[in-house]
Specification:
Elements: E1 40-46, E2 49-62, E3 67-71, E4 77-78, H1 85-88, H2 90-94, H3 97-100, H4 105-111, H5 119-131, H6 149-158, H7 170-183, H8 196-209, E5 218-220, E6 226-228, E7 230-231, H9 232-243, H10 250-265, H11 267-270, H12 276-283, E8 289-293, E9 297-302, E10 307-313, H13 318-331, H14 337-347, E11 350-352, E12 358-364
Helix pairs in contact: 4-7, 4-10, 5-7, 12-14
């Protein structure tokens, strides 16, 4: 059970019964909708023919709890993966840990990030850990090569190997370690489901999304922390309350405002050079915030409208989630004509061949 005692607000998708009728996957609690429940959100063309399609679901929710729009089955559980890192970072701020260790806006953005392992990310994470008296060895996220190809090639030329600093989640994990230190909790094992850090995060997500997650299915994310099954529209509701936290408790509302402000001011920390998230936010000057997650999940926060959006591509294709979310923003009138035109190379990318010629396009199908 989580240890957050703040009363829940029961928003869209709220249920104390996590069973769903859908195609059996062989995993208790997680169900995939059939094709009828998931419309085609994205199509990929080659020449004058559609070659591939990506089915998915999406929910648009206002901070009041009103479902503004939706595509497909929005009540089935999904794993948010890294798309909800802003929710996971709320305790870092509201416990006072961020202020106690004088975290900058760039570091708060890194706590919400899936960074690409460039020096601007790894050096800042290393400095952050050093400032709080810890090191890369205290991280429990594991290592992988940098997502940024140029950074990886530069490391290879120098004969360097990847460390946990290059893990795209090292900023989030540094935030968790910072919170544990501030609260006097063990830093070892902080990724465990029962650790106070993870229970605090789960309690926070429960309150912000209006869910009871005590019996929700869960798994281990790529970076070793728990990922909890949640209805898609409840995830969108959580993002809406990040957009407009007026209905959250005061300390939590202030934390949400600080995190979204940092997210918008430092999009380069949230993703990295050439990533969808960073490029999109830079092009819209931070007035819309996006965060992708693994397996085709994407969340959007629109502070000016008090709206949150959550997208899940059923086949897990990351290439489809961002363009689908962008098309929803356009359909809702939240992107201007000028912004849409400027974003087209990103949200409606060409499909190049080996010589660099576009043979088709990836585009929204609605």
């Amino acid at each position: 059970m989580s240890n957050d005692t703040t009363p829940h607000r029961h928003g869209p998708g709220c249920s104390h019964d996590h069973g769903h009728d859908a195609r059996d996957t062989g995993v208790a609690g997680i169900a995939l909708p059939d094709d009828a429940a998931s419309p085609i959100l994205v199509e990929v063309t080659r020449g004058n023919m559609v070659e591939s399609i990506h089915r998915g679901r999406a929910a648009v929710v206002h901070a009041s709890g009103t479902v503004e729009a939706g595509w497909g089955d929005r009540s089935s559980l999904i794993y948010p993966r890294s798309a909800n890192k802003s929710l996971q970072a709320l305790p870092l701020v509201e416990t006072g840990a961020a202020d106690a260790f004088q975290l900058s806006d760039a570091e708060l953005a890194l706590a919400c990030a899936s960074h690409s392992g460039e020096p601007m990310h790894t050096e800042r994470v290393a400095a952050w850990l050093n400032r709080i008296g810890l090191s890369e060895a205290d991280l429990e996220c594991g290592s992988h090569t940098p997502y940024n190809v140029a950074a990886w090639e530069a490391m290879l030329k120098r004969g360097e190997t990847s460390t946990q600093l290059h893990n795209n989640c090292s900023g989030k994990h540094s935030g968790m370690l910072t919170t544990a230190l501030h609260r006097g909790e063990p830093t070892k094992g902080y990724v465990g489901y029962q650790h106070p850090v993870q229970q605090r995060i789960m309690g926070t997500i429960e309150q912000v999304t209006g869910q009871d997650l005590s019996n929700a299915p869960w798994g281990v994310d790529g970076c070793s922390i728990p990922t909890i099954g949640i209805p898609l529209e409840a995830l969108a509701f959580g993002m809406a309350r990040m957009a407009d936290p007026v209905d959250l408790p005061d300390r939590r509302a202030e934390a949400a405002k600080r995190l979204t402000a940092a997210w918008g001011r430092h999009p380069e920390m949230v993703g990295g050079t050439g990533t969808f998230d960073t490029t999109f936010m830079e092009m819209v000057k931070g007035h819309i915030l996006v965060k992708a997650g693994a397996e085709g999940v994407c969340c959007v926060v629109v502070p000016e409208a008090g709206i949150g959006i959550a997208v899940k591509i059923d086949d897990g294709a990351s290439r489809a989630a961002g363009p689908a979310a962008a098309a929803i923003l356009r359909k809702l009138g939240l992107l201007s004509d000028a912004e849409w035109e400027a974003l087209l190379p990103l949200v409606q990318p060409g499909i190049p061949n080996r010589k660099g010629f576009d043979c088709g396009v990836l585009r929204a199908a609605f």
